[in-house]
Specification:
Layout lengths: L12 H25 L12 E7 L2 E4 L7 E2 L4 E3 L4 E4 L4 E6 L4 E4 L4 E6 L4 E7 L1 E5 L7 E5 L2 E5 L4 E5 L8 E7 L1 E7 L8 H13 L7 E8 L3 E4 L13 E5 L3 E6 L6 E8 L3 E6 L9 E5 L2 E8 L8 E8 L11 E7 H16 L1 H22 L13 H14 L23
Parallel strand pairs: 9-11, 19-25
Antiparallel strand pairs: 1-4, 1-6, 2-3, 2-5, 5-8, 6-7, 7-10, 8-9, 10-13, 11-12, 12-15, 13-14, 14-17, 15-16, 18-20, 20-23, 21-22, 21-24, 24-25
Length: 422
């Protein structure tokens, strides 16, 4: 006798419905999570003061009245009071509505502010490159209790110390930067002082604090300063590279030439090694650094647009200098960069204002280029190709006389050397 099979479904309709609901809920959660990661917010009732025209790896922005950090994209608008931060090995470049530019290098946090007559940055940590407009002296960088006032057509790299008690550095390639601090005004108990306070409160126009200029840094100079009253301006230990920062980018000009300024101080012979590999398994070029505080424009004629060049400092014995972290240089095409800026500015500021921004940037770059020519340019770093090195080593090995011995010994291969430029 055959047994009857149970043809009824193992799952009842209620269980099937629960499975569908759970799967739909998971899909919805994943969609919202992905949307949150790629969230790009904008303010409908406020005009942007700047725009991100280039981003490399991870960069985020946070509105002044929100706690949510959002991922920045190319052509992201920047508003008054926004905070911007970059992660390790990341970059973010922004251009303001007046043509001034800031480059945020890796592990950097800033807060930007834009007023009718002046743009400013609260520089919290990391390293930034600033380019002030050619027609206005209206850019200020605040670091702790100090202010850095940029003159017209001024470019500089500012680096904050990892330890808040250490000193910050300013390296100026063009123009002039004045380092100042606020002057504490004594409290006045008078009818006139009380009237001034009431007037400031009613008109919402607080009196600008008085500042005292501590020092002035001109083109080609480097200085260190204590960013806060708690910080102590330490004496230089003898070895430091102030420029370039740990991450930066260099654009090829119309002559297909890429030059990057190096500002350094050293009390012992050092050599900069360049490689396309972050582990430096293959050194493609070298450049010696002379002792004392110096500056030079190093021509990277061995690199091409789209490549990343890594650099580090070593002693004359080939030991990596521990006080200099080295860095990465992104090689970019100036035509592509100009196109990116044009598209980003047009989408945020409008076609007419975007043209004004581009003209202001072009005027600044022209003025900066004229001043930058005064920085001595070193002889282009020569490239020693691997094939040529191996060929040279093989010739030297064959030319070396072999001694007749009873016990055969292995001949040590010739070492590969890369000539350094003085």
């Amino acid at each position: 006798m055959q047994k009857k099979r149970n043809t009824k479904s193992i799952l009842n309709p209620i269980e099937v419905l629960l499975v569908i609901v759970c799967v739909a809920g998971m899909a919805c959660t994943l969609y919202l999570f992905r949307k949150d990661l790629d969230l790009s917010l904008s303010k409908k009732d406020e005009a942007p003061i700047a725009v991100i025209y280039f981003k490399y790896n991870t960069a985020q922005r946070r509105f002044v009245n929100r706690n949510l950090w959002e991922q920045l994209k190319q052509s992201s608008p920047v508003y008054d009071g926004d905070r911007i931060r970059t992660a390790a090995q990341s970059e973010a470049y922004a251009v303001f509505n007046d043509g001034s530019k800031i480059d945020l290098h890796e592990n950097t946090l800033v807060q930007v502010f834009g007023k009718k007559d002046k743009n400013s940055i609260d520089f919290i940590n990391g390293s930034i490159s600033v380019s002030a407009p050619a027609d206005k002296e209206n850019f200020v960088v605040h670091t702790g209790g100090k202010s850095l006032n940029f003159s017209k057509s001024t470019t500089a790299v500012i680096s904050m110390p990892k330890d808040s008690a250490d000193a910050a550095s300013v390296a100026v390639t063009a123009g002039k930067v004045e380092v100042s601090k606020k002057v504490e005004q004594p409290i006045q108990f008078s009818v006139g002082a009380l009237f001034d306070k009431v007037r400031e409160f009613v008109t919402n126009t607080p009196q600008a604090p008085q500042e005292e200029v501590m020092q002035s840094v001109s083109a080609g100079a480097v200085t260190t300063y204590a960013p806060t009253d708690a910080a102590v301006k330490k004496q230089n230990q003898g070895v430091a590279v102030f420029m370039p920062s740990s991450t930066c980018s260099v654009s090829f000009d119309e002559q297909n030439k890429a030059v990057i300024p190096f500002f350094w101080t050293t009390n012992k012979p050092l050599t900069i090694q360049f490689s396309f590999d972050p582990t430096f398994t293959s050194i493609v070029a070298v450049q010696k650094l002379s002792s004392g505080q110096n500056k030079a424009s190093v021509q990277l004629d061995f690199a091409k647009p789209g490549q990343t060049v890594y650099w580090r400092a070593v002693t004359d014995k080939g030991i990596v200098e521990p006080s200099i972290s080295g860095g990465a240089i992104l090689m970019r095409d100036n035509k592509i960069e100009a196109k990116q800026m044009k598209v980003a500015a047009k989408g945020i500021f409008g076609e007419e204002n975007a043209l004004a921004v581009q003209n202001a940037v072009a005027a600044t770059e022209k003025a900066v280029a004229e001043v930058a020519q005064e920085i001595p340019e070193v002889v282009p770093v020569k490239v020693e190709k691997t094939a040529e090195v191996e060929k040279t080593a093989e010739v030297e090995k064959k030319a070396e006389p072999v001694k007749q011995t009873v016990t055969p010994q292995k001949t040590a291969p010739a070492k590969k050397t890369v000539p350094a430029l003085s």
